[in-house]
Amino acid sequence: MPVPGSLRRVPIDEGQIAELLSRQFNLPTEETRAYLKLLDTSDLTLEQLAKELNLTQEGTGALVTSMIERGLIIVTTGTPKRFAPLHPRMTLTNIFKIYEQGLVQSLRDRRATVDRVVNLLIPVYEERKLNGGKTKD
Question: Which of 2, 10, 49, 125 would staple 44 via disulfide (CB 3.0–4.6 Å)?
C-alpha cells in the first residue's frame, strides 16, 4: 500500500475493477464503467455519457438514476445538467453501506424464518413428549 501523500496516477484495469465490485458488492458492470469514465473525464451530460458508453440515452438515463441512488455520482449545478463522480472513498463507502444493509436485512429475514419454523415444530415435539415418545400408527 502506498504511503499517504505519495499516491500517483497509475493505469487501472477497468475490467478487473468492474469484476471485483460486481463479485463483492453486486454492483452492475455498466455502473462501474460509467463511474470510471466520469472519474477519468470532466463532468458529462447525459448525451456525452451515452456516447462514451455506447448506450442509448434512455439506457443511460436509467443508469444515471441508479448511480445517483447508490451514491456513486451527483448532479452538478448549471445547464445543461451534468453528472460528476463522488470521491472514490465516498463512493466505495456508499457501495459498502448498501451492501451491509442488504446483509443485515437478509439476516433478519432468516431469523424470522427460524422463529416461524420453531413455532411450527414445537407443538409436534411437545405432543411426542406427551405421548411418551410413541409413534402414531
Answer: 49
